[in-house]
Amino acid sequence: MGILSWIVFGLIAGIIAKWIMPGKDPGGFIITILLGIAGAFVGGWLGSLVGMGSMGSFSLGSFVTAIVGALILLALYRMMKKA
């Protein structure tokens, strides 16, 4: 997948992460989307390291790892903004 595909993929992952982890975020919806895009990259990279999906193709494994990456980044962002 190209970079544009991963951005769209991350956007969807960010929306799903926000749906899974609702609440008031310090940065609002735009920050959540950006965290979703970053989470898709991080999750895709980590998933490819452990053999659960790859960054080169769309699969259920890569979608799950993108969502997990977005959830992790969203949780870390919330913890950092609370402190």
Number of helices: 3
Oligomerization state of this entry?
single chain
> How many structural domains in the coordinates?
1
The separation of the N and C termini measures: 37 Å
Which geometry do the CA atoms define?
globular
> What average pLDDT do the residues reach?
75
Family: Belongs to the UPF0410 family.
Keywords: Cell membrane, Membrane, Transmembrane, Transmembrane helix
Subcellular location: Cell membrane
Organism: Alcanivorax hongdengensis A-11-3
Question: What is the fold's blueprint, element by element?
Answer:
Layout: H1 3-20, H2 28-50, H3 60-82
Helix pairs in contact: 1-2, 1-3, 2-3
Subcellular location: Cell membrane
InterPro entries: Transgly_assoc
Membrane topology: Multi-pass membrane protein
Brief digest:
The protein is mostly helical.
Can you walk me through this structure?
InterPro entries: Transgly_assoc. It is found in: Cell membrane. Its main location: membrane. This is GlsB/YeaQ/YmgE family stress response membrane protein. The chain crosses the membrane at residues 6-21, 28-46, 58-77. With 83 residues, this protein is mainly α. The chain has one domain (3-82). It contains three helices and no strands. The longest helix is centred in the middle third of the chain and has 23 residues, at 28-50. The mean pLDDT is 75.
Tags for this entry?
83 residues; mainly alpha; membrane; cell membrane; transmembrane helix; Transgly_assoc
